[in-house]
Write a structure and sequence with these properties.
It contains five helices and two strands, in the order H-H-E-E-H-H-H. It is mostly helical. The model has no long low-confidence stretch (mean pLDDT about 90).
Amino acid sequence: MVSDTVSKIEGLLAETVDLQNDYVKRICVECEAPCCTRVHYLFNEKDILFLKLSGRKRRWRRELSTRKGCWFLSEQGCTLDPKCRPFICHTYICDDLKTEMKRCTPGLIDLLEAKFKVIGEMRSQLWVEYLDEKLQT
């Protein structure tokens, strides 16, 4: 059922955000060339479907943003709620973050990658469930 899959994805996303949060706060704020300054539009169809089905507010871009980099990056970091971010924003872990995670918490990268794999599979499952429900109505 779509709502069950959405809830499971939300729970796993919350877990991955919690696992990374302390590292992101330490490493990303000190970074001279943050990843977010080199990207623009990262939402794909699975991100959009997840946002729609989860009832979360969809913001595809910030209004009047002309600077380089992610439209949602502010001086204080990402303006999007973690569960509203594109999946790539959760899964991309730069070398500096990886190094710090490995140094402080051996096994954390493997744990995160396993959770990301499950979330990825569930995002694909969500497509199937959504289409099945649409075809039945």
